[in-house]
């Protein structure tokens, strides 16, 4: 099985690099791609850069060049959901854009014209994530739910409340994952999203400072669960087949 792991930032990729043997490295524009081995499993490590366009470029590059069986997006996020705290991990069940609005043409909030209103996580890989979570003792809280992607850092309170009103089920937001999902969907490749909370959305400077202070914690927690997925994926995906 060929697994690609995409992160936006160097800090989010560091936990993978530190425990993997890097066998090859290439860079295309801002996208860094490394072939690696982690506990006997071949990985493609991809540092995309921040934002939707960088993420879409990275996803397309890794798909065209390496044809992975699955992509896992690991990294930080801002919490919208009640009760979430820094370090908690969210596995996406659904993805919606939080900053797309073509409703005047009859589309749903968050729906890019002529594209799906929302994207669902592949059922088989979501089962792997649930089984992995159930079989592990985790040093952080873990939940499943809706992830929004926006090209904005969500610190401004009034805007956050507006998004909560439009998308009341949202758990966390990020700036990349749905661009990866949408790109991969064109090729029929599943994407799993593992997002750890670095900050609570809508608290102004407190949100920004929390991101700076807790990025490494979020990166470590997201990477921890992603590594569990890597180790358990073959066992769970094929044990009943």
UniProtKB/TrEMBL annotation:
Designated name of the protein: adenosylhomocysteine nucleosidase
EC annotation from Swiss-Prot or TrEMBL: 3.2.2.9
InterPro entries, sorted: MTA_SAH_Nsdase, Nucleoside_phosphorylase_d, Nucleoside_phosphorylase_sf
GO molecular function, one term: methylthioadenosine nucleosidase activity
Species in which this protein is naturally found: Paenibacillus suaedae
Pathway recorded for this protein: Amino-acid biosynthesis; L-methionine biosynthesis via salvage pathway; S-methyl-5-thio-alpha-D-ribose 1-phosphate from S-methyl-5'-thioadenosine (hydrolase route): step 1/2
GO cellular component, one term: cytosol
Occurrences of domain Nucleoside phosphorylase (ranges): 2-229
């Amino acid at each position: 099985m060929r697994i690609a792991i995409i992160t936006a930032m160097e800090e989010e990729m560091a936990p993978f690099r530190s425990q993997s043997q890097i066998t090859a490295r290439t860079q295309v524009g801002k996208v860094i791609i490394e072939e690696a081995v982690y506990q006997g499993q071949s990985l493609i490590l991809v540092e995309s850069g921040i934002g939707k366009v960088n993420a879409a470029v990275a996803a397309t590059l890794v798909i065209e060049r390496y044809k992975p069986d699955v992509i896992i997006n690991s990294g930080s996020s801002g919490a919208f959901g009640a009760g979430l705290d820094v370090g908690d991990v969210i596995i996406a069940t659904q993805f919606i854009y939080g900053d797309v609005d073509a409703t005047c043409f009859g589309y749903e909030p968050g729906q890019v014209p002529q594209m799906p209103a929302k994207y669902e996580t592949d059922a088989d890989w979501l089962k792997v994530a649930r089984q992995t979570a159930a079989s592990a003792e985790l040093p952080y809280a873990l939940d499943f739910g809706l992830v929004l992607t926006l090209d904005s850092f969500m610190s401004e309170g009034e805007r956050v409340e507006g998004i909560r009103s439009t998308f009341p089920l949202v758990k966390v937001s990020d700036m990349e994952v749905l661009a990866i999902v949408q790109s991969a969907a064109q090729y029929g490749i599943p994407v799993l999203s593992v997002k750890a909370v670095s900050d609570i959305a809508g608290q102004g400077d407190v949100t920004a400072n929390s991101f700076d202070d807790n990025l490494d914690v979020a990166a470590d927690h997201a990477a921890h669960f992603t590594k569990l997925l890597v180790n358990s994926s073959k066992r769970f995906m094929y044990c009943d087949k």
